[in-house]
Design a protein that fits this description.
The structure is a single chain. By secondary structure, this protein is of the alpha+beta class. It is about 25% helix and about 35% strand. It has two helices and six strands; from the N terminus they run H-E-E-E-E-E-E-H. A six-stranded antiparallel beta sheet has the order 1-2-3-4-5-6, with no helix packed on it. A hairpin with a 5-residue loop joins strand 4 and strand 5. It is extended. About 0% of the residues are buried.
Amino acid sequence: QFRFLQVMICALFGLALAAVHQPAPQEHRVVSHGDDVHAEVLSRKDDVRADGFDASLETSNHITRQDSGDEHGNIQGSYGWISPEGQHIEIKFVADENGYQPTGDAIPAVPEHVARTLAWNAAHSHEEVHHNVH
């Protein structure tokens, strides 16, 4: 019972500190990872129809999302955020029968040897592979 009382006192003390804390005005603060929990939705749109959908989101900590889709399950859009270094990151994407295909400066390039291997595999995918078993 004593341990429970200690936990309750610590919890009440933490709540009291949180209630007293007043953050600086938004325009004078640098956004950090801890500020994400205090982000507010500035705008949001969700339009779902029989022939597809359109959706968008913008938050006070500079997270954005815009996407649209059709009745066949094809989706295209973009999302973005501010990196811890202060750089705006934006990823554009298409998701269709060929899978999820993101593009953007923040996505590392495929190494040349991997690209050559993928191209060779695609060109020879129709060939049957024979394994020699000894």
